Amino acid sequence: MAGQEAVNRYARAFVSIISKKENALALYGEFHDAVQGLTENKAIVHYFMNPSILTRDKVDMIAKMMTEAGSDEIVRRLIVTLIKNNRFNILTYLAEPIRRMLYEQLGMVEVKLTVPVALSKEMEKKFKAAFEKKTGKQVILSTEIDSGVIGGAVARIGSLLIDGSVKTNLVKVREKLTGEMQWR
After folding, report:
1. Same-domain check for residues 80 and 19
2. For the chain, where are the alpha helices, taking DSSP H only?
């Protein structure tokens, strides 16, 4: 993607500011919601991407919109800065790196757990505790139900994949018995 350096630069700057706040996660959530609200409406995107509209008019418009929406000043300043620097086009690409960097800064990790059936609250707590012990970080656990997972679970922690499903174990046994690798 063009502008990845700019995305990372703005994301790092924003995270360095909000990670010091007690409401850092709420600020990220507010930023995420603002991005969705601004980028889902084609008329708004067209307005802020239109080079024939003066930057000061765009800044006045976004400041008014965000003030009326009750946005936090930090979130408002980031979006105003993006508009002043003609970087509205990278707005949609900022949410993910900001989330990832913020979680890292706050000692958090997201774990995506895929299971064959819905887990009880007690079982979710056990999985969360096990992942927190393993990673040494606070875990944000999200679960997905996939009937293709015959038994057990598949966990994704960042780029690490832990596949403890019966299906995968059966494939491994088959590979050992037949000597053939199966690509999944």
Report:
1. yes
2. 4-18, 24-40, 42-49, 55-68, 73-84, 91-105, 121-135, 166-178
Q: Could you tell me which residues come within 8 angstroms of residue 44 by beta carbon, excluding any fewer than 6 positions away?
A: 38
Using the 3D structure, point to which of 104, 124, 155 is the last residue of a domain: 104
Q: Could you tell me if 70 and 110 are in contact, meaning their C-beta atoms sit under 8 angstroms apart?
A: no
The CA angle 157-173-179, to the nearest 5 degrees, is 110
How confident is the prediction along the chain (184 residues), in pLDDT tens digits per residue? Answer: 558 999 999 999 999 999 999 999 999 999 999 999 999 999 999 999 999 999 999 999 999 999 999 999 999 999 999 999 999 999 999 999 999 999 999 999 999 999 989 999 999 999 999 999 999 999 999 999 988 887 788 889 988 888 877 777 677 777 777 776 655 5
115 and 94 within one domain:
no
State whether 65 and 77 are in the same domain: yes
Domain containing residue 10: 4-104
Residues 91 and 12 in one domain: yes
User: Among residues 76, 104, 132, which one ends one of the domains?
Assistant: 104
pTM: 0.76
My answer on whether 89 and 13 are in the same domain is yes
C-beta separation of 5 from 79 below 8 A: no
Which residue bears the tokens 């980028």?
39
The full length of the chain comes to: 184
